[in-house]
Each structure stands twice: as structure tokens, then as C-alpha cells.
Amino acid sequence: MAVATLDGETDFDGWRKAARAFRLAGVEPAAARFVVAGTMEQGGLFDQPIAEEASPTPDERRAFNVPKEFVDLAQNLILHRSADRFDLMYRLLWRLKDEPDLIKVISDRDVADALERVKNVSRASHKMKAFVRFRQVHDDLGEAWVAWFEPPHRVLEKTAPFFQRRFTTMRWSILTPDGSAVWDGEALRFGRPATRDLAPAEDEIEDFWKTYYASTFNPARLKVKTMQGEMAKSYWKNLPEAALIPELVVASSVRTETMVATPSPQPNSRFARAVAPDVHLARPDAEAVPQNLDDVASGVQACRRCPLYRDATQGVCGEGPKSARLMIVGEQPGDQEDLAGRAFIGPAGQVLNAALAEAGIDRSDVYVTNAVKHFKHEPRGKRRLHKTPNAGEVQACRWWLDSERRLIKPQVVLALGATASLALLGRKPAVMQERGAPIDLSDGSTAVLTVHPSYLLRLPDEAAKSEARRLFIEDLTAVQRRMR
Ligand code: URA
User: Fold this and answer.
1) Mean pLDDT across the stretch 241-246?
2) Residue 284, ligand 1, Cβ within 6 A
3) CB atoms within 10 A of CB 111
4) Number of domains present in the structure of the chain
5) What is the spatial distance between Cα 349 and Cα 352, in angstroms, rounded to a whole number?
6) Closest ligand 1 atom number to CA of residue 346
7) Top mean-pLDDT range of 166-170, 179-183, 330-334
8) Does Glycoprotein appear among the keywords (predicted)?
9) 258 lies in a domain?
10) Are residues 374 and 477 in the same domain?
11) What is the pLDDT of residue 62?
12) How much distance in Å is there from the Cα of 63 to the middle of ligand 1?
């Protein structure tokens, strides 16, 4: 038996190195063993460490490259809590040499088994994003947030960067039986396993949360099976609101009847602000119509109408005077807006500001907002690349844009680009053809469409850019005249 000792349960680099050496030395899967340092399994009496002479020749090295799909799969598979996952990974690696396309054969038993386990890992990571509950603590440096969480698979390191992006400006720790993640505002560190008693169990915010959950729990939408599927019982013990569920389920039929006649409660914005660090809180209360811009702001932070909140740092609402006669609607916050929580402050914002100034419009008189309030993006190395929101996301977010329009009552709404136009008109117009022409909206205001400023930034040719900019300013100037 050839044995490799790994530094930890999720030591992928250690596994990769050892597995490669095993493979090149011809160690059959049945004869390969991977053990984790410090566990009971380590150091069996008859185990042989892999011989040094297993070092591959350069030719062998070249001949044995694994596809990227396998590396991606194995990096997630190692997070599965099953004891035999290392063996499955090695079996796949072993077979890849003769079956280079193996990973694509989803009917293969090993591949199917691996994919199923990876699916469970990914589900565990997703649930962690949804069900981690932070509690407030105070230390010498001030306020901090601590959560205890028990993931079914070892997804702490995979999922912690999500919380880092989400709660960049706070200090927080997530404690789990596998290890802990600590964000101090500057660096994310991983430390030792923890026990539940290290995390606070109750605090003031928890009481707020319970009250809020009970008041927004919508009995008419209650589907016990769906709810249990989403929020499996194993998670309940760490969710403060879960204690209320049995009681609320019993009470739900009575509440459904009374609810029909009773107007739904307004969102508790004080609560929504107070509990902002809690990622799963505040389900949108579809019936609670925002009464002012503070309600919109707190509602957007708590919004779960579409999945975009999951990867955004925060929701970004509009900004400007409540009495603004002009509202400008962009697409969605970009990278800088997502971090700062303010619309149009990045490169597209600079283009917009300059063009507004040339058209004689003072930005501080304008209410500037976006069709979609959370930043949709995908990682590319260290960068977060913008992704256009889809029609479903635009539709979900119309609740907030419509609320802003109802509260501000602008005379003119200027839509920048196709997404904003879709949000305003409910159809995707040909912006280039319809730009500049006033369109009556049902609330009595007028929509005007034009291009998005980032379109100007993207044009590669200086002459085309300058012409596009001239037309953009012309559209803005026409809007300015209309406002007089
Ligand atoms: N692009 C937008 O549409 N909105 C912003 O806030 C920034 C860039």
C-alpha cells in the first residue's frame, strides 16, 4: 500500500502532488491511500510511503496533463465530507490517462458519483450563503459580527470570499466545526475548528429578527414541503427564526383568513438597517408598498426578489432631490458603485457628469438611479466583469424603480440604454431608432430614451466616439429644453 499524508481534509495541493506521483509510479487505485495528518487513520503499521524514485521523467511529466474540468471537479469534490472522496478522485485521475475524455462521460459510474457529490458541495455552499446568521459582539475595536454554522460539507473556505465581498466594511468571523474564517476589514484568514459555545447565541438583533420574521411570514404562501426543502431541518437549530416556524405553521390557517381583510404591515426600516449584516433576512414583503425613499433604501438592502443580491456587496439605490423633475435611469451599478453604494460614480458616471454639464443640466438637480439595484457580474481573475441583467431580473427590480418613480414623480425620465428602456416601457425598444422622441408613460410623465454612457466608452474609434458623444449631448440638451 502506498500512502500519502495530506496536511488537512481539504489539502488539494497536497493531494494533487501525491496523486500525480502515485500515477506516474503506476500505483493502482486499490493500492493508493490518502490520509490526513493528525487523524486516527494516519500511520498504519504496514503502510509504505511512496518511494522517491517515483519522481517522473520530463517526458512522463509532459505526457500526463489532466483536463481543466478534472481539476475544477476535484477541487470541489475534495470538499465533500465522504471519507472515500480521495479514492474516487484518484480513481478518476488514474483512468484519465487512458480515457482523456472521461469527465465528459456522465453515464460513467465514477463520473456520475463525482458529479453528484460536487452538486451536494455546491448546494452546501449556496445554503451557507443563505443561512449564516451573524450576531453582534463588541470588543476593544468596537462592533463585530460572529456566526456559528455547521455546513454538511467543508465549504467554509470556498464560501468565505462571498461574505468578504458582501460585508467588506465590517469585521466578522464565521465559526464552524471544520475551521473558522475571520475578516478584519483587510485580510481574510482561516483558523482552527471552533465549537458552538464560542459564538454568541442571543443578542438584541435576534429579537428584532424574530419579530420581523413573524410579521412578514406570509401564511397565504405557506408551502411546508418547499420550505423544508429550502431550509432543511438540519439548519434550523442555528436559525433564530426557525424556533417560530412550528407555531407560525399552526397559526397560518387562521392568519390567512384574517389577512384577506387586513392591510399588510409596512416594512420596518429600522429593523432592516439594524440587521443588514444578516444575509438571509428580510424576505421581500410583496404587499408592503414603500412609503418613502428610506423604505426603498432599506427594502433594496433586504431584497431577495432575484438572486443578484447574493454576489453583490450591497444594493445601490437612486440618489438626488425628492423634488427632482428629471430622473435618469441607468442599467445597474458597476464595480465601483457596488463597493461605494452610490449610482454612477465610476467611469460611466464621469462620462455622464461631463455630458450633463455640457447640456447645462446640474446633476445635483437630478435623481439618478438604475433599473437593477444589485451588481451582476462574473469573476475574471481579480476583476469582476459586468454582466447584463436578464429580463427576469429587470422585471423583479421594477418594484423598486416604480416605487422611486411614484415617490419622486419626475416630469421626465431619461432611460440610458436598452435595460433602462426595458424597465420603463416593459418592452425592449430599438434605442438608436427611438432615441430622443418623447414617449408618454401611464403616470403622466414622459420617457426619453438615449444610449448608455458606457457605450461611448466602448467605441474603439475616436471619430465614432466623438460623434456618439455629440449625439448623446444633443439628447440631453433636448431633455433640458423640455424641462423649462
Ligand atoms: N452603469 C450604470 O448603468 N449605472 C451605474 O450606476 C454605473 C454604471
Assistant:
1) 61
2) no
3) 20
4) 4
5) 5
6) 7
7) 330-334
8) no
9) no
10) yes
11) 55
12) 48
Instruction: Report the separation in Å between the CA atom of 347 and the middle of ligand 1, taken as the mean of its atom positions.
Output: 9
Q: Is the CB of 346 under 6 A from ligand 1?
A: yes
The answer to whether residue 208 sits within a structural domain is no
Q: Which residue has the cell 501525491?
A: 18
- Rounded to a whole number of angstroms, the distance between the first and last alpha carbons of the chain is 86
Phi and psi based region of residue 314 (left: phi greater than 0; alpha: psi -120 to 50; beta: remaining) = beta
Residues 128, 129, 131, 137, Cα dihedral to 10° = 100
d(CA 199, ligand 1 centre) in Å: 39
- Of 95, 126, 157, which marks where a domain is finished? 126
Same domain, 191 and 246: no
Nearest ligand 1 atom to the CA of 420 is 3
Ligand 1 lined by 344 (C-beta under 6 Å): yes
CA dist., res. 253 & res. 194, Å (int):
41
Q: Is 421 in the pocket of ligand 1 (CB under 6 A)?
A: no
Same domain, 466 and 356: yes
Q: Is residue 203 part of a domain?
A: no
**370: CA distance to ligand 1 center in Å?**
7
Cell numbers 483536463: residue: 67
Question: Which stretches of 30-154 are DSSP H helices?
Answer: 58-63, 68-77, 85-96, 109-131
Domain assignment present for residue 272? The answer is no
**Number of the ligand 1 atom closest to the C-alpha atom of 316:** 6
Residues 188 and 319 occupy one common structural domain: no
CATH number of the domain where residue 417 is located = 3.40.470.10
Q: What residues contact residue 252 under an 8 Å CB cut-off, 6+ apart?
A: 217, 219, 222
Residue 12, C-alpha cell as written in the block: 488539494
Together in a domain, 404 and 452:
yes
pLDDT tens, 381-413? 878 999 999 988 898 899 999 999 999 999 999
- State whether 72 and 98 are in the same domain: yes
Are 346 and 386 in the same domain? Answer: yes
Establish whether residue 268 lines the binding site of ligand 1, counting it when its CB lies within 6 angstroms of any ligand atom.
no
Q: Which of 83, 102, 126 finishes a domain?
A: 126
| 246 and 177 part of one domain | no
Q: Is 378 left (phi over 0), alpha (psi -120 to 50) or beta?
A: beta
The answer for 436, left when phi > 0, alpha when psi is -120 to 50, beta otherwise, is left
Q: How far is CA 234 from the centre of its chain?
A: 23
Question: What percent of the chain has pLDDT above 90?
Answer: 57
Ligand 1 centroid distance, CA of 349 (Å): 7
Each residue's pLDDT tens digit, 317-347 = 999 999 999 999 999 999 999 999 999 999 9
CA-CA distance, 150 to 318, in Å (whole number)?
38
Helix, strand or coil for residue 302?
Answer: coil
The alpha carbon of 333 and the centre of ligand 1 are apart by a number of angstroms equal to 4
What's the pTM value of the predicted model, to 2 decimals?
Answer: 0.48
